[in-house]
Design goal:
The protein is α+β, with helices and mostly antiparallel strands. It has three domains: 6-282, Beta Barrel (Butyryl-CoA Dehydrogenase, subunit A, domain 2), CATH 2.40.110.10; 286-462, Up-down Bundle (Butyryl-CoA Dehydrogenase, subunit A, domain 3); 469-502, no CATH class. Helices cover 48% and strands 14% of the residues. It is built from 18 helices and 14 strands. It has helices at 6-14, 37-48, 56-59, 80-97, 104-124, 128-142, 282-318, 325-350, 364-389, 392-395, 399-403, 408-414, 423-438, 441-447, 452-462, 465-475, 484-488, 492-502, and strands at residues 19-22, 25-27, 60-62, 69-71, 146-149, 172-176, 180-191, 198-201, 216-221, 227-231, 258-269, 273-276, 353-354, 360-361. It has a six-stranded mixed β-sheet, with no helix packed on it. A four-stranded mixed β-sheet has the order 5-8-9-12. Helix 7 runs parallel beside helix 9 (364-389). The protein is globular, with a radius of gyration of 26 Å. The N and C termini lie far apart (81 Å). The relative contact order is 0.11. It binds iron/sulfur cluster (SF4) and fe (iii) ion. Fe (iii) ion (FE) is lined by residues 100, 191, 444, 448-449.
Length: 507
Amino acid sequence: MAMKSGKEYIESLRKLKPTVYAFGGKVESVVDYPLFRPHIVAAAMTYELAKHPEFEKEMTATSNLTGQKINRFTHVHHSIDDLVNKVKMMRLLGQKTATCFQRCVGLDGLNATYITTYDIDKKYGTKYHERFKKYLKYVQDNDLMLAGAMSDPKGDRSLRPHQQQDPDVYVHVVEKKDDGIVVRGAKAHITGTVNAHEIIAMPTRAMGVEDKDYAVSFAVPVDAKGVTLIFGRQTNDTRRLDGEIDPGNAKYGIVGGEALIVFDNVFVPWDRVFMCGEYDFTGQLVETFAGFHRSNYGGCKVGLADVVTGAAYWMAENNGVEKSPYIRDLMAEMTSMAETCWSCSLACSYQGSKTNSGAYTINPLLANVVKLNITKFTYEWMRLAQDIAGGLIITMPSEKDFRNPEVGKYIDKYLVGKAGTPTEHRMKMLRLIENMAVGAGLPEALHGAGSPQAQKMMIQRRANFEGKKELAETIVSIKPDKYFKEITGKTEDEYFKELREALPKCD
Ligand code: SF4
Ligand code: FE
């Protein structure tokens, strides 16, 4: 099947019948549920833009399995160019939607599983990789959206999975059958699940031999028997029902919709099982996935920064202060922070490498630096956007009052900015900034793809502090520079003695 359009994606969701709960009730039709609409429309853009010739390079790729042109969201990266185009795609979509377009988590799950199954098979002679390639082909041929499900609820964080009082707080295998496995447990805050076609589940942490049953990776359709999705709340979520101005970003929403996924004795046929007991590969799968997803944030969140910087500039112009040195300074700060994150994202892609499987992965140290910067800079550039926009972002009357014939005229008269621009435009821009700079997008930038502590642990592990210490020790000659003789053909003493004699005397 050819790549889907946005409309075809939405139509394809109608064929699925997932068990979804939101706001205390069962959702009969995901596509027709008003609170899901912005998320669905944002995800649809990952399909729609891939159809557009202008974005072909970023949005499409050539499948290594079939040689066909496919949506990049189903592609396993096979070159540095692929990695770079992936983050360019994310910045582009961030600019076009100003929100989370959700489909990247599944993409990262596909890539991490592709790489890891190859290595598992090499060590154990299993057949996961071939199985996974068949599944990947199915995903590519049908242009599916996958929810990447990694985070387990975790219960008592000081205990390992097998030590938990309730064994289900981590997803685990409860039965092995001839034709497949049965899994139980849950995955928490999983982006885009209600409007995905499939769920790809992966372990959430490195595990030991006692956690063997928890070392499991698999894929199921969102409407598989025993799967229940409970949709998460977000700040101002019911604003989505409040007209065109008050939602802030009425078309695409503010953050990706997340869900708690419950697996209540779900049967998974063997051809959809990609790890089952190989606990020594859980760490690799988690790190590879996390590296990919953290590298994305310098793409998608920078796209959002582009939008909020533009909105702040619009407000500055509308307030007649765009030439003020203070405002210009803030605008430069916002841009500099965003481009720093973008540079990190490009760097971790350009510094990527080929894995045993032939697929490419990003530089993991730099990917973690990308995400750590995002956890800080997002708050900072959103703070500056709040500063430029002014207090109206939190004091402005509602859209309903603006539409009210009695008082709307006063809002129109007194909340106007520069002459010639309708008050309504100003209200729209203020609400956009409110939703981006005050709403749920902030903690999403902090905790999405792992909280700061997770990045710091990875950075500590890969920073090579010992190597850096040695650099300092050789500079002050506490330790000999072991490369010195190779480079100069002399000992340090001989070299510097000669150099001192050759240099003109200073006195
Ligand atoms: Fe994609 Fe960014 Fe949303 Fe993650 S937070 S799914 S990388 S848009
Ligand atoms: Fe995210």
